[in-house]
Known about the structure:
Elements lengths: L1 E9 L3 H9 L4 H4 L3 E9 L3 E10 L2 E12 L4 E8 L6 E9 L2 E10 L9 H32 L1
Antiparallel strand pairs: 1-7, 2-3, 3-4, 4-5, 5-6, 6-7
Helix pairs in contact: 1-3
Amino acid sequence: MMHLERSVEVAAPARRIYDLAQDVAAWPAILPHYRWVKVLRENAREREVEMAARRDWIPVRWTALQTLDPSTPRIEFKHLSGWTKGMSVAWTFAPCAGGTRVTIAHDLDENVRPMLRGWFGRRVVGDFFIQSIAGRTLARMKQLAEERNG
Length: 150
């Protein structure tokens, strides 16, 4: 199992950040590295989405099931297709001095994609793609939440 985490401390309440993060259909308008997000189906608690982003000039695309838990708050994704098929992603929001610590954790079962074991999986898929995109996402969410917290 490959486990990756990125965190950032945001000077804003968890609910403000959660509201920005859960609205994945708006991500291409607020996150410059996202090319598109198509909502394929949704109900009050779940959305199946096709997501496309860029790592520098390299395009990536996947389909995921997003599960929303606004009361905790927590956002989860299960990747249904793409290089990261089978990956579980969790956005968590914890109080910290001055605001909220937002963490994105990625857990990729390498048994689903055996070619992602070892160096290639860790360095290329994990560090180069997943960690880079998550880092850019968190940095922009921080900026937007803090601007709105004014």
